[in-house]
Design goal:
The protein is elongated. The strands form three sheets. Strands 2-1-3-4-5 form a five-stranded parallel beta sheet, with helices on both faces. It has a four-stranded antiparallel beta sheet with strand order 6-7-8-9, with helices on one face. Helices cover 41% and strands 23% of the residues. The protein is an alpha/beta fold. The protein folds into two domains: 117 residues, Response regulator (Rossmann fold), CATH 3.40.50; 96 residues, Winged helix-like DNA-binding domain superfamily/Winged helix DNA-binding domain (Arc Repressor Mutant, subunit A, Orthogonal Bundle), CATH 1.10.10.
Length: 229
């Protein structure tokens, strides 16, 4: 299996150039053109490294990195940006970035920085994201969208499974609404917000066979999947 890189760059031409170069170096590259779509793809697939432009529509690179750090504290993040002053670099590192490459840059420098960042982390290409979660008396298979209880079994829709997977990653912790919305729908607005509430209601119904489980609403913040020992 190849090392998988998430590249988010709103300049389509530059994105294709970088993507083609990285592919020629042997990496598998997923290219997105805005931060919201990048975050959605991050939650749908497994990646070993991220490369983000900073100035992007819908969700800029700093916000994107900050959101991803809530989901994964280890994955290397490289910023590509025309911003070169110290304040911007400091903001980039504070948001969770590991390195900073200022545009314009030459391809060789990009190759060296990518290789250097990947050497810093112990990457086992065969390692997969956790696929099965135990939720009280339930077993949740995230790959097959299957929820199993000793008394019932339920097949989930893709969005139901995506929402529940994010809640499981932060079991007994509050997950902000915008993380769920942008992680599943790629956007945060009134209509998808209403859809999220409907899906949460459905998930509560599916999990009601175990009274030790509840999905609580933390007013003004988000949701928490609570499982009592």
């Amino acid at each position: 299996m190849k090392i998988r890189i998430l590249l988010v760059e709103d300049d389509t031409s530059l994105g294709f150039i970088i993507s083609d170069q990285l592919k020629s170096d042997g990496y598998h590259v997923t290219l997105c053109t805005d931060g919201a779509d990048g975050f959605k793809r991050f939650n749908e697939e497994q990646f070993h490294m991220c490369i983000f432009d900073v100035m992007m529509p819908k969700k800029d690179g700093f916000v994107l990195a900050s959101d991803i750090r809530k989901m994964n504290t280890e994955i290397p993040i490289l910023f590509l940006t025309a911003k070169s002053n110290d304040a911007d670099k400091i903001q980039g590192f504070k948001s969770g970035g590991d390195d900073y490459l200022t545009k314009p840059f030459n391809v060789e420098e990009l190759q060296l920085r990518v290789a250097a960042l990947l050497r810093r982390v112990d990457i086992n290409i065969g390692t997969k994201d956790q696929s099965v979660y135990n939720i009280g008396a339930y077993t949740f298979d995230t790959i097959n969208f299957h929820l199993k209880h000793p008394e019932i079994e339920k097949g989930l829709t893709k969005k139901e499974a995506q929402i529940l997977k994010i809640l499981c990653k932060f079991m007994n912790q509050v997950v902000a609404r915008d993380i769920l919305l942008t992680g599943v729908w790629g956007q945060d607005d009134y209509f998808v917000g209403r859809s999220l509430d409907v899906f949460i209601t459905k998930l509560r119904k599916y999990l009601k066979a175990d009274e030790n489980i509840q999905i609580s609403n933390v007013h003004g913040v988000g949701f928490k999947l609570e499982v009592q020992a």
